[in-house]
């Protein structure tokens, strides 16, 4: 089990149904952790791809259009 350090920041997002979701998080991180959840079933899903477009933007691609929500996390995780 890993502990999250106090200097960890999260950005919660919601996005309407689409196959491409562009999420602006403004966390200034080129290696953010991204969790994606289907709105209709509350299942954590694995997207087709998660592209770190910039230090402040993540693009989430899905095979099928879905409304999603999730969390983008920036920070250190203890070993």
List its salient traits:
79 residues, mainly beta, 5 strands, 0% helix
Protein topology:
Layout: E1 9-24, E2 33-38, E3 44-45, E4 49-54, E5 57-74
Antiparallel strand pairs: 1-5, 2-3, 2-5, 4-5
Can you tell me about this structure?
The protein is mainly beta and 79 residues long. It has no helices and 5 strands. The chain has strands at residues 9-24, 33-38, 44-45, 49-54, 57-74. Strands 1, 2, 3, 4 and 5 form a 5-stranded antiparallel beta sheet that branches. The protein is globular and about 35 Å long. The N and C termini lie close together (8 Å). The model has no long low-confidence stretch (mean pLDDT 90).
Element order, helices and strands? EEEEE
- The secondary structure category is mainly beta
CA radius of gyration:
13 Å
Which percent band covers the strand fraction?
over 45%
- Share of helical residues: under 10%
Give the structure's gist in a few sentences:
The protein is 0% helix and 61% strand.
């Amino acid at each position: 089990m890993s502990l999250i350090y106090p200097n960890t920041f999260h950005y919660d997002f919601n996005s309407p149904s689409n196959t491409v979701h562009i999420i602006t998080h403004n966390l200034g991180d080129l290696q953010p952790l991204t969790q994606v959840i289907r709105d209709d079933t509350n299942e954590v899903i694995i997207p087709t791809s998660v592209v770190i477009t910039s230090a402040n933007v993540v693009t989430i691609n899905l095979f099928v259009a879905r409304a999603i929500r999730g969390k983008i996390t920036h920070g250190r995780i203890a070993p």
